[in-house]
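Box 3.1 A note on notation
Throughout this textbook, protein chains are presented in two layers. The first layer is the amino acid sequence; the second is a token string describing backbone geometry. Keep the layers aligned when reading.
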Amino acid sequence: MIPKDTARLWEELRHRDPEEKQEWIRQLAENPTPESIEVLLDVLKQESWFLRDQAARTLATLGERVVERLIELLEYGLWYTRSAAASALGRMALPVAAVPLVALLRDPNRTVRDSGRDALVGLCGNEMGLFAVADAVRTLPERAQSFALDGIQARDPERYQRLTSLLREPSALDAAVRRAERGGAEEGGLLWEDVVGDEGARGSA
């Protein structure tokens, strides 16, 4: 899809109702060609909250093929684009997004920072994401670390407890991160209980 076609699409969509816009985005996702992915990413730069939200949800289903592009958009000039990209990355919950999402907590815009914390909660929903978030959060200065953890605690106390359990065991977290980097988690089914032990797992239940 060439830029001229994209511009024409925005003009046509301006006059359509939400259901038609939603259907248009759904159709783009059905056949995620490089051109349709570019259009979906461009939607994140549009002023319409509805379109951005629908595109973020759709992009989150496309996984690794768009994760690097979404990470790039975390530094885009428009705050609502950074926020929408964080939302998509949170739904995707891939560990590779942990470091850039933690960095997003320094964003000058409060809505963007909140989107970053929402996304980190999403990452903490799976074992690999939890390890990656813990590894990224522990590098923060004390005040910034408290800001990150307070936000996660307010949104999901159970995931907060699992995260802080990992942070209290730096040697175990190091081992988990090393194993994850070797791909051992995928091959061996590394679980959070493998890192914190049965007692730690029961403690957060």
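The chain has 14 helices and no strands. The CA atoms of residues 1 and 38 lie 8 Å apart.
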